[in-house]
Amino acid sequence: MLNHTNPLIVQSDRTILLDVHAVLAEECRNALIPFAELERSPEHLHTYRLTPLSLWNAASAGFSADDAISTLTEYSRFPVPQAVEFWIRETAGRFGKLRMTVPANVDAEICEILFLETDSLSIYKEINAAKQLHTLLTPDVNEKKLRFILKLIDRGTVKQKLLQLGWPVEDLVPLKDGEPLEISMRKESRSGNILNVRDYQIKAADALVGNKGPGTGFGTIVLPCGAGKTIVGMEIMTRLKTSTLIVTTNISAVHQWIAELLDKTNLTEEQIGEYTGEEKKVAPVTVATYQVLTWRPNPNSSYPHFELFRKRKWGLIIYDEVHLLPAPVFRVTAEFQTIRRVGLTATLVREDNCEAHVFSLVGPKRYDVPWKELESSGWIAEAECIEIRIDLPEDKEIEYAVANQRVKHRIASDNSYKKDIAKKLISLCPEDKILVIGQYIEQLEIIAKDLGVPLITGKTSNTERDRIYASFRSGENRVIVVSKVANFAIDLPDASVAIQISGTFGSRQEEAQRLGRLLRPKNRKARFFTLITRGTVEEEYGMHRQKFLAEQGYSYRILKYVDDETLHEATEIKDC
């Protein structure tokens, strides 16, 4: 039955068009988030695609094929193609066809072999014929069941390879308990604030911990920046009450985790260790950086600090900003599949297309919530995105025209007009705390010097970084200039304006993280300005960067800079 007011058009190639002007568009967008991926987001029609990974993530969180089909049917303008319904059922139905289990009557704590089993003879034969699995799986010839034997240590690698073959594994092997640790959340933080864990934070922890039985205790929690992913991590810790290894992005983030743990839990300083390039203390709760774990003396040597994973009997590993998990850590994560683990992130988007590694090694998406839903509830700040398009200086036009793609991007990003535009925007936002964010260090140095404000780059010492961040929080410095080191895991709750002058080509992940610097709840609307050189590759990259935020319901107000009246219009706060 046709309903021309509905917002969706489902096509036989498994793409989905969303009419953003339809009455039910926002409601429909939220309904699509669990099982569809946004591909393009121009002005009128947004394009989503159904993928095997998006359906398997949904299935692992209890979202069935029937749920997906029901959503498409409810919002579709035309009948959903039968071929799409069939594909959804077939693909989603692959989750659970292969199960990883322990032998019966064997203590999971000491078991060194596992079973991979199926009820389907055709699947069994397909897996048995896969050459890449011959050294990892042995058919169990002593049983009538259709199953293979594998070593415990190969658990993660087998899951990775099977996912590449299109077969997600339902991992039902019980996880081993770590060292016990009595940990609880305070009723009132040390800083004097009443501590209430929000309902969605409780639901996220529930989704990860489950009943602590087989198939629970591992996965990924997706929440926007500013929504309190650290609180979710601590809530999980209090439920599992075990020694915990937390791995995060940089030393500033390590210090923030430690400060939050001391402020909001009953843990003492002696119970928390820092494992970084500056200090290497291992304690019942240890917070480390990805950088120290992936350091090695030379490209051909091993990673000496991977031993941290073995230094205690960890009961939980928290991968903060899991979308940034380095490839070497994936390899060690494949080995440590017996430990409960959670990935925390604002977006599972990875520019290296390794989302499947997160699914198979850390765990599938267990909880997600639309950004706009949290905004409407007041849990994150309301934000407006404004793109200001600026002409390229005439003396750069010929140089730009003859350059290759990478150099074109650098010329457009380095547009000298951007410095003046940023300076004027700052003067028009006198009540705001402002981040000026960019990609190229030389450009940032010039802007920081011209503005007379602090600059933070990868070369800034950790002590100096912490001092600058503290001065920003206190109001001593209202404006700071930051490179991409501030893209993630930095708590700047008072920042209400960001001016993005350059970015990493078309990184959706970066765009989401940069907007996220502004989303801590506050009593004013946040504004995210992006300066783009008009008529250049920056426009194309900018559209790609904005894709993830468009999926979350953000739209960009686009203004062409003509004169300073344009900037007055840009800084007028309007409804999102």
Written overview of the protein:
The chain has a 7-stranded parallel beta sheet with strand order 12-13-11-14-15-10-16, sandwiched between helices. Strand 1 and strand 2 (about 15-20) form a beta hairpin. It has 4 domains: about 10-90, no CATH class; about 100-170, no CATH class; about 200-370, P-loop containing nucleotide triphosphate hydrolases (Rossmann fold), CATH 3.40.50.300; about 375-570, P-loop containing nucleotide triphosphate hydrolases (Rossmann fold, 3-Layer(aba) Sandwich), CATH 3.40.50.300. Helix 6 (about 155-165) packs across helix 11. It has 22 helices and 23 strands. It has about 575 residues and is of the alpha/beta class. It starts with 7 loop residues before the first strand and ends in a 6-residue tail after the last helix. Helices cover about 35% and strands about 20% of the residues.
